[in-house]
């Protein structure tokens, strides 16, 4: 009887949870694909069907998406810590159901904005939850690898879906063909999440129990775990590693938000076809997605800080190439570099947050980090739109390059290394494996 009970207990480690981990990778690919179906197409619809020429107005749908996603990230973290992960994941997919239907039927731009509010809620709830669930499953030893695989699946799917949607738009028109993809993605995700995904909160509780020496980064003089308000302050401003990650994440997604609204319009100035624009846009998340399969694991070996710094500098260089270039060849080089820099940063930032945050409030810390990171969509869209309207498209890209370089310098100066090699090697499936030392203030 005791052996049977032991077999039912959760175990930490990637190999021990391979089936559930792979299922969550597939679900997160569908999350990313929901974004990819519209990225290439919506800026073209704005110009050709609704006659929108002001960049600021065109970018409103990206801002709406970013604000909705950032806000729902907080609720995803808080609710998943309180009620479990799976209910939040399922709720997120319910918000996706009307999105492709609204984009197909949209009689004006207001419908597009409303659809992107719902899409932002879907993305915040589902993507945040799959991140938290993977961190729960793998334990401390393979956290970077887990985040690399998660983000590779999501952004690889963004690239593939963007490319397919661009091809459908070129062959069959801007509507409805590209958005039929979203209907299929949502139906499959609800089936997988409802029937096969298991809640991982017991794994987080096990992590906290097996690693009692890992204390919350609570403010000095505070007993016990920090409150929601304290977690927000720590992750946003006070704790050096958490707040540095939040700042770098915001700038990273500022670049993505800018590219989402601006790149198709910039590429269209060279009289490229919808298919060519789709290909160029797909290079960025494609390299980003594939690269994360390696950079996440690399951060487990060499640490987080220097990879984040180098990644932000690479993004600054890439944006400079895009601003200076013109035509498919130059822009291909720039988007590939931008994807590589983002791959270095994206899973590594999530792993760093997981290094510092205690399992008992990990969901909330991840949620706050993702609030700041995904506000970058809105900041990039609004700032990029205003600058593009007044100074031109290239000026908006130069702004993003300068901010990326500044973020790299800030991380280099303030962030400490959150992941150090464990004192003794441990098998990844061994639930007794100890956490690597960290420097979170206690």
TrEMBL record:
Upper lineage: Bacteria, Bacillati, Actinomycetota, Actinomycetes, Micrococcales
GO CC terms in record: plasma membrane
Localisation: Cell membrane
A GO term for molecular function: transmembrane transporter activity
Where's it mainly located?
A: membrane
List, for all copies, the residue spans of the domain called Major facilitator superfamily (MFS) profile. 21-419
Q: Is the Coiled coil keyword given for this protein?
A: no
> Does Lipid biosynthesis count among this protein's keywords?
no
Q: Which PROSITE patterns does this chain map to?
A: MFS (PS50850), SUGAR_TRANSPORT_1 (PS00216)
This protein's membrane topology, according to the annotation, is:
Multi-pass membrane protein
- UniProt name for this protein: MFS transporter
Keywords noted in UniProt: Cell membrane, Membrane, Transmembrane, Transmembrane helix, Transport
Question: From which source organism is this entry?
Answer: Arthrobacter psychrochitiniphilus
Cross-referenced InterPro entries: MFS, MFS_dom, MFS_trans_sf, MFS_Transporters, Sugar_transporter_CS
């Amino acid at each position: 009887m005791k052996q049977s009970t032991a077999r039912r207990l959760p175990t930490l480690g990637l190999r021990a949870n391979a089936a559930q981990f792979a299922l969550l990778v597939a679900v997160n690919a569908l999350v990313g694909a929901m974004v990819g179906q519209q990225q290439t197409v919506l800026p073209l619809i704005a110009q050709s069907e609704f006659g929108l020429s002001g960049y600021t107005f065109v970018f409103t749908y990206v801002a709406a998406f970013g604000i909705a996603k950032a806000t729902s990230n907080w609720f995803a973290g808080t609710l998943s810590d309180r009620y479990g992960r799976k209910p939040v994941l399922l709720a997120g997919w319910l918000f996706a159901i009307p999105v492709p239907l609204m984009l197909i039927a949209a009689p004006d731009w207001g419908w597009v904005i409303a659809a992107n509010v719902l899409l932002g809620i879907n993305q915040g709830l589902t993507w945040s939850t799959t991140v938290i669930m993977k961190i729960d499953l793998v334990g401390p030893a393979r956290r970077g690898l887990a985040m690399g695989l998660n983000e590779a699946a999501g952004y690889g799917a963004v690239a593939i879906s963007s490319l397919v949607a661009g091809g459908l738009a070129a062959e069959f028109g801007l509507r409805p063909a590209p958005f039929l993809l979203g209907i299929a993605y949502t139906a499959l995700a609800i089936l997988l999440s409802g029937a096969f995904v298991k809640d991982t909160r017991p794994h987080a509780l096990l992590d906290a129990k097996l690693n009692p020496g890992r204390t919350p980064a609570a403010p000095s003089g505070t007993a016990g775990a920090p409150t929601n308000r304290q977690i927000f302050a720590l992750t946003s401003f006070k704790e050096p590693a958490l707040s540095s990650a939040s700042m770098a994440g915001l700038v990273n997604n500022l670049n993505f938000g800018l590219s989402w609204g601006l790149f198709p319009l910039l590429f269209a100035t060279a009289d490229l076809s919808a298919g060519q624009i789709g290909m160029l846009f797909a290079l960025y998340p494609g390299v980003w997605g594939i690269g994360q399969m390696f950079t996440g694991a690399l951060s487990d070996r060499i640490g987080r800080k220097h990879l984040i710094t180098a990644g932000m500098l690479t993004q600054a260089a890439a944006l400079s190439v895009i601003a200076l270039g013109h035509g498919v060849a130059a822009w291909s080089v720039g988007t590939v570099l931008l994807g590589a820099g983002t791959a270095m940063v994206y899973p590594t930032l999530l792993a760093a947050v997981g290094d510092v945050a205690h399992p008992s409030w990990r969901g909330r810390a991840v949620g706050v980090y993702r609030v700041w990171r995904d506000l970058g969509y809105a900041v990039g869209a609004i700032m990029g739109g205003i600058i593009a309207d007044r100074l031109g498209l290239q000026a908006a890209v130069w702004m993003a390059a300068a901010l990326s370089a500044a973020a790299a310098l800030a991380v280099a100066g303030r962030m400490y290394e959150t992941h150090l090699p464990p004192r003794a090697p441990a098998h990844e499936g061994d639930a007794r494996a100890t956490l690597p030392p960290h420097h979170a203030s206690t």
